Amino acid sequence: MIRITARSHSTGDYLLPEDALLPLFVVSCGHQYHFSKDFSVRRPEGRPDYQLLYLCEGCGHFLRDGVWEKVPSGSLILYPPHEPQVYTYLAEENPEIYWIHFSGSDIPSLLSSFQIRDSHIGIHPALKQVFEEIILELQLHKFRFQDVAGADFHRLLALINRFMHVQDSAQTDNSPIDRLITQLHRHYMDDWDIRAMADFCHLGVDHFSHRFKDTVGVSPVRFLTGLRVERAKELLLTESLSVSEVARLVGYQDPLYFSRVFKKFTGISPGMFHGNRGKK
User: Fold this and answer.
1) pLDDT tens-digit profile of 77-92?
2) Spatial separation of the C-alpha atoms in residues 242 and 274, rounded to whole Å
3) Which residues contact 157 (CB under 8 A, 6 or more apart)?
4) Mind listing the pLDDT tens digit for each residue in 20-60?
5) Model's pTM, two decimal places?
6) How far apart are CA 190 and CA 187, in angstroms?
7) At 28, phi and psi to the nearest 5?
8) What is the SS3 assignment for 248?
9) pLDDT higher than threshold 70 for residue 204
10) Which residue among 9, 24, 116, 133 is the one 20 to 30 A from 189 at the CA level?
11) Closest CA to 122 of 169, 54, 177, 179
């Protein structure tokens, strides 16, 4: 299992009474891969805050109303405060999950406004990127990090609502974009630019750029950069590779340029991230 967790309080993952009185408070956020060991959660009394889970790969098994349900990738699970939480991830199913705990007086109206509920919305890299940005803010604790995390949380809810709408309406045929996303996941290290991506989809550059952003939520370049940076983070955390070697493996021939991109995207240099791999 690889688990990356970030918290608002450096001393632990908990909700203080004064936190709950704020309009919005992001308690913690995290990212988990389960590939070597099963993992279970059993909280009969739930938690005092809300929890939102996004299952972006594999599947999970959730006990709801006394019945076990197998939940597929692309699904959201929302736990209100004090609702029992019982669920299991099986390593053989290779689940990958993002989760966030939050509280505040504005939360009920926000969840209602954005129609956040248990649902299947599909796999969207834009959501993963917003989760990663929240995680980074809660890790670094820079000035006004809670305000930035709160703004990112609003963006997360808005994107979820957008993808729910797209899933429900199914008005647009996005098969060229879907095929490109699959190709980028497999060949992110190749020499891609906007023209190459547009040509792959048999679309003009301007039309492609607008259609990609409407579908995915981010620009094509930012999406590709996100894929490369996420893969670089995995390599830096789990492999005995130098920064230069990682740069080449994810598609950057110039290690200095890779370092600038990595730091702009994550807030820290790849060398610092590499040096902290034992602390994750």
Assistant:
1) 999 999 999 999 999 9
2) 8
3) 110, 111, 114, 116
4) 889 999 999 999 988 788 999 999 999 999 999 999 988 99
5) 0.65
6) 6
7) -165, 165
8) helix
9) yes
10) 133
11) 54
What one-character DSSP code corresponds to residue 212?
H
- Long-range contacts of residues 104-108, Cβ cutoff 8 Å, at least 24 apart: 104/19, 104/20, 104/22, 104/23, 104/24, 104/25, 105/20, 105/21, 105/22, 105/23, 106/23, 106/24, 107/24, 107/50
- C-alpha 245/C-alpha 252 separation (Å) is 9
CB distance 48 to 81 below 8 Å: yes
| Residue bearing tokens 């259609």 | 211
Pairing of strands 59-64, 119-120: unpaired
The CA R_g of the chain, rounded to the nearest whole Å, is: 19
Q: What angle do CA 161, 163, 167 make, to 5 degrees?
A: 115
Secondary structure of 38-67 in HEC code, one letter for each residue: CEEEEECCCCCCEEEEEEEECEEEEEECCE
d(CA 41, CA 76): 17
CA distance 113 to 199: 39
